[in-house]
Specification:
Its cofactor is [4Fe-4S] cluster; FMN. By secondary structure, the chain is an alpha/beta fold. Helix content is about 40%, strand content about 15%.
């Protein structure tokens, strides 16, 4: 099975739309339509913006759930203390194959995301805005939105805005990995814990939040705290975006008020009436059994009380006809392959944990189960980033939630159900081509001496043959590799590389049957 999610799945709404307003009118809200739907937005000073975030209990919607008001005040305080202008970063990187909510926002309502980011930038006195994206579709949409607003990366008195492309990997969306990518390094966690509010992009205090958080801020700034809090739970007001996939008839992104029963949302997507389990929070999240999923409401507090997690807003039910442990093994193998490879728990622990789960499924008995539990405990809390912790949480939750299946595999001959691949993972060999920059890097064979530095700097474009010389004479440069291609040209000792213009059109975002229904 394993059908990867489309970039922009069907979008549905429960109740009145906030973030998805206007989706029933057009596929993408360009600036004029955005202003018609949402109206103009007035600037808000720093303390008033922080108080607004406090009044609506705005927590980060990227998984960690950190209070936005506290983050805003921390960045402002660090900027004042150090006498340096801060940077605002929109993290729209979604490297998890079960998440599409930020992609939907950036592709269909990019100006709502930019509204929130620009509100924060003006309140902080920032002069640099960076948007980190993962896919061709999001890159094309956000570049078009910045162009509609006249925002560029050129020096001048106004705010500078740029787009940074990160790989579609699990670890690349982590905050420190995004900051490292913005600074020109690899999109991997640096292995040290440092608050972005103190030292982020270029060493400056940095406000980094995900796309939905900034969009929620823009909605609240227009509605005001009282109207915003009329929707949803009193302690967690407003709406949330959820990505529903797994054993559902229609994978979708749905905007839903907090407090709505989870079972209603699952029914909306066509999930089984009695799912074997529901994975909440994505592949770094936790499982709910069918009873807990029936009782749960869509909120951080409700899901957490029942052992689940809202996390990045991914909800994945599995039906009674598939082997839950086999499905989990597929994800565990993928998580092990997604490691940064920078520490023992990631490089060694996660593959060992995935292998341990495979041993359990292959009849290893109680000894294999105990070994799996031991390696899962050893991984937790010892990594250089949060990837080992999240992966260990997923595995521990799997073992705790499917005890009957576990007993069947450990004590008997297995559960007798097949593994059908219902949890989405990237297709084998998947790789984004990248939005073209309109440029090519060319090799001058009369000068090339086979030093190989170009292939070290930008291996995605230039690979060396058996003779040590580049395999291609010219290569089209996508936008996200433009900086490294220019660096390869500058560092070629033989001056054998050059970049020339090659006309190329940006891909158009045109999607049919995106489905914007209201339930």
């Amino acid at each position: 099975m394993n059908t990867p999610l489309p970039d922009v799945p069907e979008v549905r709404v429960v109740g009145l739309p906030h973030l998805t307003a206007g989706f029933d009118l057009v596929e993408r809200l360009a600036l004029p339509m955005h202003l018609k739907v949402h109206g103009p937005l007035k600037p808000v000073d720093g303390e008033r913006l922080a108080k607004l975030a406090d009044d609506i209990s705005l927590n980060g919607r990227g998984g960690a759930g950190f209070p936005f008001g506290r983050k805003l005040r921390a960045v402002a305080s660090a900027a004042i203390r150090r006498g340096i202008r801060p940077v605002v970063v929109v993290n729209a990187s979604e490297g998890e194959p079960a998440c599409r909510k930020d992609t939907v926002l950036v592709c269909r309502a990019p100006h709502l995301v930019l509204d929130g980011a620009l509100l924060a930038a003006e309140a902080l006195g920032a002069r640099t805005l960076v948007v980190a994206v993962t896919r061709d579709s999001t890159e094309a949409s956000i570049r078009a939105a910045l162009a509609e607003r006249g925002l560029t990366d050129k020096r001048g008195p106004a705010l500078r805005a740029r787009v940074v492309r990160t790989p579609e990997r699990m670890v690349s969306g982590e905050a420190s990995a995004v900051i490292r990518a913005v600074d020109g390094g690899p999109a991997l966690p640096p292995g040290r814990r440092e608050r972005a509010a103190d030292s982020g992009v270029g060493g400056a205090p940095t406000l980094l939040s995900n796309a939905e958080t900034f969009a929620q801020l823009a909605v609240a700034a227009r509605l005001g705290p009282q109207r915003f809090c009329n929707t949803g739970e009193p302690t967690e007001p407003g709406t949330v975006l959820l990505t529903l996939s797994g054993a559902v008839a229609r994978p979708m992104v749905v905007e839903v008020p907090t407090g709505v029963p989870l079972r209603y949302v699952l029914q909306l997507a066509g999930a089984p009436s009695l799912p074997q389990g529901v994975l909440t929070g994505g592949y770094h999240g936790s499982w709910l059994n069918s009873v807990a999923a029936h009782d749960a409401a869509v909120s951080r507090a409700s899901l957490s009380a029942l052992g689940g997690a809202l996390g990045a807003g991914a909800i994945l039910p599995i039906g009674p006809g598939t082997c839950a442990l086999g499905e989990a093994l597929r994800v565990a193998n993928w998580l092990a392959a997604e490691t940064a490879g920078q520490c023992g728990p990631c490089r060694l622990g996660l593959p060992a944990a995935a292998g341990g789960l495979a041993d359990v499924l292959n009849g290893g008995g109680p000894a294999a189960l105990e070994a799996l539990r031991e390696v899962t405990r050893a991984v937790k809390g010892r990594g250089a980033c949060k990837h080992p912790d999240g992966s260990a949480r997923f595995l521990a939750s799997t073992l705790a939630s499917f005890t009957d299946d576990l007993a069947a595999h450990v004590l008997g001959g297995g559960c007798g159900r097949p593994t059908v691949g219902v949890l989405p993972l990237p297709a084998p060999g998947y790789q984004e081509e990248g939005v073209p920059s309109g440029e090519k890097v060319l090799v001058d064979w009369t000068l090339c001496e086979g030093h190989g530095l170009c292939a070290d700097i930008v291996p995605e474009l230039i690979r060396l043959g058996p003779d040590g010389y580049p395999l291609v004479a010219d290569a089209t440069v996508p936008m996200h590799l433009r900086g490294r291609a220019q660096r390869a040209v500058r560092r070629c000792p033989a001056l054998a590389l050059r970049i020339e213009q090659a006309p190329a059109a940006l891909p158009q975002i045109s999607r049919k049957a995106l489905g914007s229904g209201r339930s």
